[in-house]
């Protein structure tokens, strides 16, 4: 039986592991995809103290991966499909096997929301990095107005013919730094109090996107669509009675009301979701779990 199992190898999970192992915990981290979580997919990691200037998510993710190797952390690439409490310990079932631990830190993060529109088989993207060639010279529609959406729109504007940001609020919700950059970028058009209602597909590409006010964005060369409208929590594997908000995020402090159970990062109800707050949660969870 392990002292501790950590579910998720994003910034919060890795932070928790580093602090817990250094205090003597025998632990395992489970990750279903890649180390880094959502931050590993962004075009630029901004505002995190000491981050490499203009570093992209993949570079940041690799540094997390290198840190795991350098500290000899036990990382298993297995998807956790069930977490239950068994008397004085926890049972963690993965796609491969079952494991037991005295304590568990849930740092499973979140996944991007999908658009509530018929995509006609077109695969809507959530991240700009890796799509540079695909959007080159085309029209791009970014659904969203948050910091994340603004940052990706600015990155896409380097390659696209034009970028349309569609925001259902009456103004962009991003920080002032990004607003100023968007306002000064002639390639970016902002549509507030709007939403996508129809996608017009011709054979294998999108040629039209209709907004709620009837405006139609057209480009026979093709339109690429990116959805950045928030996240859903990765909590479906948790078989425990826990308080949640209306979106399903766990409404708990880092140290939960269930003995031996901790929550860190984006999976929690939080006013601010940033790398800094995730790392903070991980630190607190790792230290608490090691006591």
Automatic annotation (TrEMBL):
The keyword Transmembrane helix is assigned to this record = no
Q: Which residues form the FAD/NAD(P)-binding domain?
A: 2-282
Gene3D superfamilies per UniProt:
FAD/NAD(P)-binding domain
Annotated GO molecular function terms are: oxidoreductase activity
Xref: SUPFAM superfamilies: FAD/NAD(P)-binding domain
Report which superkingdom the organism of origin falls in: Bacteria
Under Pfam families, the record lists:
Pyr_redox_2
Keyword annotations for this protein, in alphabetical order, are:
Flavoprotein, Oxidoreductase
Q: What is this protein called?
A: Pyridine nucleotide-disulfide oxidoreductase
Specify the taxonomic lineage: Bacteria, Bacillati, Bacillota, Tissierellia, Tissierellales
């Amino acid at each position: 039986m392990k002292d501790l199992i950590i579910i998720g190898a994003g910034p919060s999970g890795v932070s928790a592991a580093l602090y817990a192992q250094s205090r003597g915990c025998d632990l395992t981290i489970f990750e279903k995809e890649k180390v880094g979580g959502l931050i590993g997919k962004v075009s630029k990691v901004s505002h995190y103290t000491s981050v490499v200037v203009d570093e992209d998510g993949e570079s940041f993710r690799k540094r997390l991966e290198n840190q795991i190797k350098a500290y000899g952390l036990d990382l298993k690439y297995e998807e956790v499909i069930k977490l239950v409490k068994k008397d004085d310990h926890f049972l963690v079932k993965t796609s491969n096997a079952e494991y037991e631990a005295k304590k568990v830190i849930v740092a499973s993060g979140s996944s991007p929301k999908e658009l509530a529109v018929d995509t006609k088989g077109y695969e809507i993207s959530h991240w700009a990095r890796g799509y540079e060639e695909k959007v080159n010279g085309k029209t791009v529609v970014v659904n969203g107005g948050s910091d994340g959406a603004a940052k990706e729109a600015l990155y896409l504007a380097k390659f696209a013919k034009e970028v349309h940001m569609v925001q259902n609020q009456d103004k962009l919700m991003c920080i002032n730094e990004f607003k100023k950059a968007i306002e000064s970028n002639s390639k970016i058009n902002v549509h507030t109090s709007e939403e996508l209602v129809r996608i017009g597909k011709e054979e294998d590409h999108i040629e039209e996107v209709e907004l709620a006010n009837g405006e139609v964005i057209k480009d026979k060369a093709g339109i690429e669509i990116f959805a950045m409208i928030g996240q859903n929590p990765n909590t479906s594997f948790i078989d425990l009675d826990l308080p949640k908000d209306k979106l399903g995020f766990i409404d708990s402090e880092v140290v939960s009301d269930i003995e031996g159970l901790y929550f860190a990062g984006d999976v929690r109800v939080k006013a601010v979701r940033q790398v800094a707050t995730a790392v903070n949660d991980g630190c607190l969870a790792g230290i608490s779990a090691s006591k």
